[in-house]
Specification:
- With about 800 residues, this protein is mainly alpha-helical.
- It is built from 36 helices and no strands.
- The radius of gyration is 43 Å and the shape is extended.
Length: about 800
């Protein structure tokens, strides 16, 4: 008799009919009428308790489900116990008094007997407990240690179930608002487990903490410091997991951002390059219609490049950058402790490289001074060293402007001497020059004049990777210190007397970053508005002139402007001649007024006239920036800094952000040669990032290997050859191609098939012979030399 069915004796004792009912049917009826089925509930509850006692006794006697004689060896017993546990979990909300101790009994049963239970029973009982947790009958704080212990068991379905439940329950708890009290209680449980010596528990707690931090549920400094402290765990597995999370956090964030981005942004991800040949063809070659098509295509490419530049600038913005290493409470102590562990570490080479990267990243982010780190890296700087590009990237990352140049100089010379020389390979020279450029970008005081002139000579190399690396070094020092370069390599620098800052020198900002862009933009807006007013006044003057002069709108506009300017100049000179006889002071005032009018006529094209100032004031009162423009237009002798008064609104800051993005887009277009004729591509062809931007920038080993051709394997070469052969068809002889030809025969083929008479054939042969003789006679006449034989 299966135990999941209610017996007839029990039902008759309760005064009901003797028909058999299964647990799901009884569950639905108990939800409809809880008070009428208390007897059945007590019966099922007692059966559950008895089964639980049997399994607990088995656990006390050290039985397992596989051992003969154990209760768990019978699959029906385990299934019945699981069904009763799930049944009681479903009806617990309807019987809060009768099943008051049921959740605690379920937790005790799992914590004491989970290791000896069969896998299916463990999963079912865990699901019953999760059901109680979802209905808020049990708190997550009471069951979190149990769920962490269940993840340690060698049961994959149970491990996945327990882990997903912990993550989702904590996320649901913090969905509407952060519950700091509950979060701190749960964090203390997991952090204490992370510090335990048990490797499995510490590993599962670290995975849970990292996942919650990545999902930005526990996105505080306390969690970030706990992950960083896991780097000093005694277990190598836990240490490696913590180091890999710290190193790969930025890649994970970029992948998440790319997943959340729209399809329109995904289409702009590939790099778009425009050749000068395409620009030339769009402007010069082809018909008018084809030029229009090419120009339209070029404009689409330019727009996509601007959008790509704007997205990349938003993604690389310093305010959006985050890494767990930035939240360290004691970064100097963390770096020193991790470096001391690196010196005494006996792990394999890959783990040592991970520790080196984390130490270098911490030093670069917080601009720490760890002088012993550079001689340690100097021992491994060799071209034949394994994974040398990542080692050099770590060396670059650890350099910043607060490090004394004397501490980095031996490492810098070691890189130059080992990588950049005539007998070195092309790849080594290119990597060495790129590393020198990145280090000099951070510490320019390391470079000397003789060394720079020697390195610049590699620009004449026939290898693209070497020449491009040398040219990038030239472009860097054109901005930092042009005096170190030879005159022919200086080009046209912006500041010929520029020199790098001395060690410890700090530039203190005296203005809001980007305020100069806003001032230039306000000046452009004022000039544009004045031009509009001038055009409006010109129309008024044309209407007053009547039918005296016939001037067209487009073709005669320049003539009209020139005539107006001549009339204004004549009027000014006449007024100046008339006022020569006036007093000296009044004459000075009038001359100054005339000069102002002339300067406005030269710059704007015409004199500024306001038709209705009150109307402009009403329209400008709607926004703060419009008032500033109006004030700047009215005050002729004041500077733009006086009009702003040093007060910026939210609209101004948003405009500064847009202007910065526009400036970066213009810089990207200048690099591709897509600027218009009026703009100067040499004005800002190389942008030097600030020290804060360099500290946040992540240096990757692949970026140091730019333009280096990697040697292809045999399989890659085969695939490349097969890809080239796919376009061409199978080889066939000309005869076979002619045989398969359709659409009629050629004249020569028809001539061969034509049955000619014998006389025609003989005459044709005779004609051919005569033509040959005529050609030979002509060739003999043209011969003017002397025969070398008789």
């Amino acid at each position: 008799m299966p135990a999941t069915e209610i017996t007839a004796d029990a039902l008759s004792a309760s005064g009901r009919s003797s028909e058999k009912m299964s647990l799901p049917t009884l569950q639905s009826k108990m939800k409809c009428d809880p008070e009428g089925y208390e007897t059945e509930l007590n019966l099922v509850y007692n059966q559950f308790k008895s089964s639980v006692q049997l399994f607990q006794q088995q656990a006390a006697l050290n039985f397992t489900s596989a051992v003969s004689g154990g209760v768990g060896s019978d699959p029906t017993v385990a299934k019945d116990l699981g069904d009763r546990a799930m049944f009681l979990a479903h009806v617990t909300p309807f019987y809060p008094v009768q099943l008051l101790n049921y959740p605690k009994e379920l937790v005790e049963f799992l914590s004491s007997s989970a290791r000896v239970l069969p896998s299916s029973l463990r999963v079912t009982v865990t699901q019953a407990l999760i059901l109680l947790l979802n209905r808020k009958i049990v708190a997550i704080k009471e069951t979190l240690p149990l769920f962490m212990e269940l993840q340690v068991l060698s049961d994959k379905p149970l491990k996945v179930l327990a882990f997903s439940h912990v993550i989702h329950s904590i996320r649901r708890m913090n969905q509407k608002h952060k519950n700091e009290t509950e979060n701190r209680a749960l964090q203390s449980i997991l952090f204490s487990m992370l510090q335990e010596e048990d490797e499995k528990k510490a590993m599962r707690s670290l995975v849970t903490i990292c996942d919650l931090h990545r999902r930005k549920v526990w996105f505080d400094d306390r969690t970030a410091n706990a992950i960083c402290r896991a780097c000093f765990h005694k277990s190598s597995r836990v240490m490696i997991a913590a180091l890999s999370f710290l190193l790969d956090y930025e890649k994970i964030e970029q992948e998440n951002d790319s997943d959340e981005s729209s399809d329109e942004e995904e289409q702009i991800q590939p790099h778009i390059a425009v050749s000068k040949e395409a620009i030339y063809k769009a402007k010069n070659t082809g018909t008018t219609s084809s030029k229009k098509k090419k120009k339209a295509k070029l404009q689409r490419v330019i727009r996509s490049m601007k959008k790509q530049q704007r997205l990349s600038s938003e993604r690389d913005n310093n305010m959006n950058y985050y890494s767990p290493l930035t939240s360290l409470t004691d970064p100097q102590g963390f770096a020193e402790k991790l470096f001391s562990k690196l010196q005494t570490c006996k792990e394999r080479f890959e783990i040592k490289m991970m520790i080196v990267k984390v130490v270098a990243r911490t030093v670069g982010l917080h601009r720490l001074i760890l002088l012993n780190f550079y001689p340690f890296l100097q021992k491994y700087v060799q071209p034949h060293q394994r994974d040398v590009t990542n080692l050099l990237a770590a060396a670059v990352q650890a350099c910043h402007d607060m490090v004394p140049p004397d501490a980095v100089e031996p490492l810098f010379k070691q890189i130059v001497n080992q990588f950049v020389h005539d007998r070195s390979r092309t790849e080594s020279i290119a990597v060495g020059l790129n590393v020198v450029r990145e280090i000099c970008l951070r510490i320019p005081l390391l470079m000397t004049e003789d060394l720079l002139q020697d390195l610049v000579l590699y620009k004449k190399s026939h290898e693209k990777a070497v020449s491009s690396a040398a040219r990038s070094l030239i472009s860097l020092f054109r901005e930092i210190c042009p005096s170190l370069l030879v005159k022919k390599d200086r080009g046209r620098p912006i500041d010929p007397k520029a020199k790098p800052k001395a060690f410890g020198e700090v530039t203190i900002p005296s203005d809001v970053p980007g305020a100069d862009l806003l001032q230039d933009d306000v000046g452009d807006d004022v000039s544009n508005s004045s031009d509009m007013d001038d055009h409006f006044n010109d129309d008024l003057e044309e209407e007053d002139a009547g039918s005296d002069d016939d001037v067209s709108t487009h073709e005669g506009g320049s003539e009209l402007n020139s005539e107006i300017e001549e009339d204004d100049d004549d009027g000014d000179t006449l007024m100046g001649n008339e006022e020569d006889d006036m007093s000296e002071d009044e004459g000075d005032v009038s001359c100054s007024d005339d000069d102002d009018v002339k300067s406005l006529g030269e710059t704007k094209g015409q004199k500024r006239k306001f038709a209705d100032f009150d109307e402009q004031l009403d329209s400008a009162s709607q926004s703060l920036r419009a008032l500033k423009r109006l004030a700047g237009a009215k005050s002729e002798n004041n500077d733009t800094s006086d009009t702003t008064d040093g007060i910026l609104s939210n609209e101004d800051f948003q405009r500064i952000k847009e202007l910065k993005a526009k400036k970066e887009a213009k810089l990207a277009l200048a690099q591709h040669g897509l600027l218009k004729k009026g703009s100067d591509p040499r004005s800002e062809h190389f942008k030097i990032p600030s020290s804060d931007q360099l500290s946040l920038k992540r240096v990757d080993g692949y970026s140091l290997e730019a333009n280096i051709r990697q040697k292809m394997t045999k399989e890659e070469r085969k695939a490349l050859m097969k890809a080239g052969r796919e376009e061409t068809g199978k080889y066939q002889s000309k005869a076979a191609v002619k045989q398969k030809k359709t659409g009629g025969l050629s004249n020569r083929q028809k001539e061969h098939k034509k049955a000619m008479p014998l006389v025609a054939k003989r005459s044709k042969i005779a004609r051919v012979k005569r033509e040959k003789k005529m050609k030979q006679r002509g060739a003999d006449k043209q011969f003017r030399g002397r025969k070398a034989w008789k």
